[in-house]
Design brief:
eight-stranded mixed β-sheet
Length: about 290
C-alpha cells in the first residue's frame, strides 16, 4: 500500500498501490462463488483510416444482449483490504450478493473468505483495470447472465506518488486507464442491462484531490477530477433511463479508528444507495 503524505487523500488509496504492486484495480476467475454519427476518429482507430474502426465496448455490450439485473447484487471493482472490503461487508451484511473484482486471484480468494461469516453469496472476477479491453470482456460475461449487479461501486485507483514532469507516457496512460477509463467501460457494459431493467446505481469513489490537486500525487489528482466529470456526464446520459450515477467523495485520509474509519465510510455508501431523497451528481463524506 502506498503511504501518501497529503492531508486530503483519495478515498481508495487505502485499497491500492502503484504500478509495481497494484491492489486497488484488481479483478478475478469469473464468477467463482464461495458462499457466503460522428466523424471524429475513435481512440482505437488509426489516423486516416476511418474504415478500420473496431467495435467499442458500448457496441459490444449492446450486441451481446443484456441479461437480467438484480437490484440487490453489488459489483465492487477495486476490491482491497481497506475501504473496498468495508463496503463489501456492509452490503453483504445487508443481504446483498457481492461480486468482487481485482487483479490478484489469491488476494480475491482471501477477501472472499473473510466475508464467509456474512452468509452472503460472494463471487470473484479476476481482471486488471489497467487493461480496459480485458476488463470490458469480463464485464460483458457478467452482464450477459441473469441476476447481474444492479449496484456498482468503482473503487479502483493507481495510487503511486508521481509528478507530471517525470512521468512517462506509459505511466500516465496506465493511470488514466485505471482511474477513469475503467469506470467508463464498466458503465458502458452495464448500461444496456440496467436500461432494460429500468434501474441501476453506479457510484465512483472520489477523493479530495479533485478539489485540491497535489503535485506529488499527480495522476491521482488528475484521475479523481476526471472521474468526477465522467460520473456527472454518465449520470446525465443515464438518468432518463432510471439509472443513477454519482461520485462519493471522501474528503480526508482513511484510517481505522478515526472519523474516516473504513466502516464509517462504508455506511455512507449504504446510505447513498438506499436514499429516498433527490439524487445528486456528487455526495460527500467529510467525517461528520
Amino acid at each position: 500500500m502506498v503511504s501518501c503524505p497529503a492531508a486530503v487523500l483519495s478515498a481508495s488509496l487505502s485499497d491500492s498501490a502503484g504500478p509495481g504492486g497494484r491492489q486497488g484495480h484488481q479483478l478475478e476467475p469469473l464468477p467463482e462463488a464461495v458462499d457466503a454519427k460522428g466523424t471524429a476518429p475513435m481512440p482505437n482507430e488509426r489516423a486516416g483510416d476511418p474504415g478500420n474502426r473496431t467495435s467499442t465496448n458500448a457496441d459490444l455490450a449492446g450486441a451481446a444482449g443484456p441479461g437480467s439485473v438484480d437490484g440487490r447484487h453489488l459489483l465492487l471493482v477495486g476490491a482491497g483490504p481497506g475501504l473496498g472490503m468495508a463496503v463489501a461487508r456492509r452490503f453483504a451484511a445487508g443481504g446483498y450478493r457481492v461480486t468482487l473484482v481485482a487483479r490478484s486471484t489469491d488476494g480475491l480468494r482471501d477477501l472472499a473468505a473473510t466475508l464467509a461469516d456474512t452468509g452472503a453469496k460472494i463471487s470473484t472476477i479476476a481482471a486488471d483495470a489497467s487493461d480496459p479491453d480485458g476488463l470490458g470482456a469480463r464485464m460483458r460475461e457478467l452482464y450477459r447472465g441473469h441476476g447481474a449487479p444492479g449496484v456498482i461501486v468503482y473503487n479502483a485507483v493507481m495510487g503511486a506518488p508521481d509528478r507530471l514532469l517525470s512521468s512517462t507516457v506509459a505511466h500516465l496512460q496506465a493511470a488514466y486507464s485505471v482511474d477513469v477509463i475503467g469506470a467508463i467501460v464498466v458503465a458502458q457494459v452495464a448500461a444496456p442491462a440496467m436500461r432494460a431493467a429500468g434501474l441501476g446505481t453506479i457510484l465512483v469513489t472520489g477523493g479530495g484531490f479533485a478539489d485540491h490537486p497535489i503535485p506529488a500525487l499527480a495522476t491521482v489528482s488528475l484521475g479523481k477530477a476526471a472521474l468526477r466529470s465522467a460520473a456527472t456526464m454518465l449520470g446525465a446520459d443515464l438518468e432518463p433511463d432510471g439509472i443513477r450515477v454519482a461520485t462519493l467523495t471522501i474528503a480526508g485520509q482513511i484510517a481505522a479508528g478515526t472519523s474516516f474509519d473504513p466502516e464509517r465510510i462504508a455506511e455512507r455508501y449504504w446510505e447513498v444507495v438506499h436514499a429516498d431523497g433527490p439524487w445528486q451528481a456528487e455526495f460527500r463524506y467529510t467525517g461528520e
